[in-house]
Queue: 2 jobs
Job 1
Amino acid sequence: MTEEYKDGPFGISRRHFVKASTALAATTFFYNPSARADGTGTPATGDTSPADERVVPTCSTFDCGGKCDIRAHVAGGVVTRITTLADDELDPEMPIMRACVRGRGYRKFVYHPDRLKYPMKRVGKRGEGKFERISWDEATTLIADNLKRITAKYGPASRYVHVGTAVSGGTFSGDSMVRRLLNLTGGYLQYYHSVSMGNTAAATPYTYGVAASGSSLDTLSETPLVILWGHNTTETIFGHSNHYYQKMKQNGTRFIVIDPRYSDTVSSLADQWIPLRPSTDNALMDAMMYVIISENLHDKAFIERYTLGFDEASMPEGVPANESLVAYLMGAKDGIKKTPEWAEPITHVPAQTIRQLARDYATTKPAALIQGWGPQRHNCGERTARGSTILATITGNVGVKGGWAAGYGGDASRKFTTGPEMPDNPVKEKISVMNWVQAADDASKVTPQDGLTGAESLTSNIRILFSHAGNYLANQNPDINQTVRVLEDESKIEFIVASDLFLTPSAKYADLLLPETSFMERWNIGETWGTASYLMLSEKLIDAPFETRTDYDWLREVAAKLGVEPQFSLGRDEKQWIEQIWEATRKSMSDENLPTFEALQVQRHHLFKSKPNIAFEDNIRDPQNHPFATPSGKIEIFSKRLYDMQHPEIPALSHYVPAHEGPEDALAEKYPLQLITWKGKNRANSTQYANPWLQEVQTQKLWINPLDAEKRGIAQGDSVRIHNDRGVSLIPAEVTQRIMPGVVALQAGAWWQPDANGVDHGGCANVLSSSRITALAKGNSHQTMLVEVAKA
Ligand SMILES: Nc1nc2c(c(=O)[nH]1)N[C@H]1C(S)=C(S)[C@@H](COP(=O)(O)OP(=O)(O)OC[C@H]3O[C@@H](n4cnc5c(=O)[nH]c(N)nc54)[C@H](O)[C@@H]3O)O[C@H]1N2
Ligand SMILES: Nc1nc2c(c(=O)[nH]1)N[C@H]1C(S)=C(S)[C@@H](COP(=O)(O)OP(=O)(O)OC[C@H]3O[C@@H](n4cnc5c(=O)[nH]c(N)nc54)[C@H](O)[C@@H]3O)O[C@H]1N2
Ligand code: SF4
Ligand SMILES: [Mo]
């Protein structure tokens, strides 16, 4: 099979074409139920499956929000088709997810003619994208030699493994195995903070003592009102969300969606859409709280029993007067009551809408305010994330069935595998993910104030960098133009290794570019997001094409050249690692129902049919024995820990503070439009960008409101120039009322395509986004940027 594969695995070579079409033609009249791998697959209507076809339930291991059961139809060593599980296979109690449009297009990703085929080393200047083919032996020798040289010269803290989320949906990846290898040979400089939801994770413990934890969605079956706050689950999937929300909708739950964009979630679920100016969420929240409290709609008994800092009578020791929530809302210090009329010019939400929203939320019992991660990928993200916890608290929606405690955090009862054994990292200092460009440029500038932990200063710049399954050297990192200036300087980072399936805008900056297999060409276990609690086998379906290899495979060779192969691999091949991880998971969960690895290969997935899980239920039911993990043991509306930081952007109450580059910034005079991005249905971040089927699903365009377009003489489809001091992007305009006036939007993840003048023609928002670090979390603010748009 391998031989044939080398000839043309991409569905375009003549040999493959003949082979596949013959197989299909031969079996047009067959219906072969036994072809299903395990008896669970259902052939689609009008089935024309070839006789030797296996229909394998499997999943990708992308970081896409789902972990869907796709059915790969495999015949003659080729995946000929992808379907998904049928309606009658859904378990109504805990359904497995069904493939989205991206999943149904996976073949066009795997069999794409542009896939990287051979290891290559850079020949031009770094970033030029000129490479020449080399052998795997030369590639692994280059890595081993550079690792030895750089480690001897600069120490292990000069070694860095970059963001690479495309394999994070699986238990085993090159990304984790390179960390294992580096730990075995001295360690590496680690980063913390998740660019996905790190601002939420850092902020919500100040309310509850632990990071935001959602409940399981089955607890919402009788909730009459759900507010989706910057949460676009129709596109982003988030585990089982759509299944539950659609069921609730049918049962009469009312949905309100708060988003500057009329998202697919608005069109598929919402009874009411409330657009607001990005980064002003806290002003809306403050005004909602003002209405709730001034109209006496707050849950007094709940507040009294469980919380700290609501009014002056419930403040912690050592804080002067007028710092409580009520004092702030009533303007005790600044003389400004935080009324809906105060919030209207800030948010652009009409005062009457705010008033009604507040009343609806406070008087519907229970109600769930569920916040997505879009609003917290802002410069004010921590405040927004904490703001929603305070609204939930004053309305008594925490720890009760049908309520919701915190911005979306996933269900704490969700189960994970153990992952591969990871030796300790001897390098103790860590940087925030936002510090890496600085650490590559001039490490002496990375200070504890900016996010360095575990040391007062760094011992070295980043000198060798591994980027596995990430497009984060350029494309996905904020402020690309500033970033690539550092990357292009070959005296800074001395050696960059990238592993991908495509020559992405980031891969162009590699010194060594390695072609990995796709998820269809290796074994793994898929792990779900959100409240979808199951594990699923991701089977090796087809042979690796050309000279592609799994990262683990070539890392073994590097380990051998470093003299640590036995310790690194423990003698296991990839499948043996998966088996070992599965068995270790069975032991650690002590779950007798978890099948053996052998049984898993028949069963395919394991559902954790756990009881509905309500976040903080114990703390509310029995606070005596289950105090919150905060210093006071209570829900902290006012956080003394935040107060003591005495930082204007870290208010103890999480109230509205205008964001840098928000609509109130002086820069808005020069750049009057706020640009936001969203995660669209046709790719996971930038993964599958080149997939031709998915490019047909949605074209990259700038969403602009007719009012803003008209002012600028822009008509539908006109080419427009989006610009600010950081960069310029030139793409067509989509003039649409789906975006509110004053705001423009680009789908995230489009490939950066700079011309000779540095003007992007791909519609990549990160030529315009800012690398400003959030105050508390030291995290990202990809979403907060001001721009101007002109007809090109
Ligand atoms: N289809 C698809 N699904 C995905 C991904 C993908 O790329 N494509 N990526 C996956 C990943 S890695 C992640 S981290 C998650 C991310 O999931 P999210 O972070 O929740 O997704 P986003 O689309 O960034 O943001 C959600 C919504 O927030 C809105 N928004 C932006 N700014 C503001 C604001 O200031 N206030 C309010 N109220 N709303 C605002 C956006 O318009 C958007 O509709 O999704 C995952 N799922
Ligand atoms: N403007 C803006 N920027 C953002 C965001 C935003 O909302 N707006 N979101 C941020 C968020 S939440 C995230 S998570 C990051 C995501 O940023 P990244 O982690 O960089 O994720 P992707 O862009 O999907 O890039 C993954 C790469 O891995 C490759 N790949 C896929 N499968 C495999 C495999 O099996 N092996 C190997 N070796 N490679 C593979 C894909 O081809 C792709 O090039 O982006 C961040 N950047
Ligand atoms: S891309 Fe994600 S959501 Fe879509 S089918 Fe695959 S696993 Fe499911
Ligand atoms: Mo993410």
Job 2
Amino acid sequence: MSQALAEIQGRIAAAEARAGRPAGDVTLVAVSKTQPWEHIAPVLDAGQKVFGENRVQEAMERWSQRREGLELRLIGPLQTNKAREAVAFFDVIETLDREKLARVLADEIQRAGKVPRLYVQVNIGEEPQKAGIAPDKADAFIAACRETYGLPVEGLMCIPPVDADPAPHFAKLRAIAQRTGVEKLSMGMSDDFEIAIAEGATSVRVGSALFGRRDYA
Ligand SMILES: *Cc1c(COP(=O)(O)O)cnc(C)c1O
């Protein structure tokens, strides 16, 4: 039903095997942002349940009528004024990256009585244009999320610099996770998810390789 989905699943399975990891260890997050419905429908029909979206509003428009049985992850930057909607709508928020957002999320979680699974985004290549906590501030930020704000940190997320070898960046994220006792790693996209799996990714965020190139026009 979806050739592309079968192919990506096969490549994930092969990468798991090469890394000596159990089959099914890695979750595929299908990144559906900006995609027309005719690209998404075959992947959904083929049984894919986990989808990633960049924007709260866009995600709600795309998914609220067919939310049942799916796991939706926010993988784009979260403004504090959208925190209430994000907490209500998403199962996982992967872009917790600053103290103010931690405080607002903690308040909204309290109010809603519902805790999304949370990942801290690390700006692993220390790029000025990218979101994420700086690597040298990550340990203290994770501790503050847990201790000051009472937020459970399930995982870390990163987007390495475009033109660099991603492997050392993935390894660096894994090292932060290991020393802070964080279990999950969201890393790897269409061009580098197999490398990310070799470096310990527990979920990979694949968009264009699954749905075709995004059209931002
Ligand atoms: C768009 C996006 C992806 C998917 O990128 P592809 O290269 O199309 O696989 C993954 N992660 C984040 C955070 C994104 O914004």
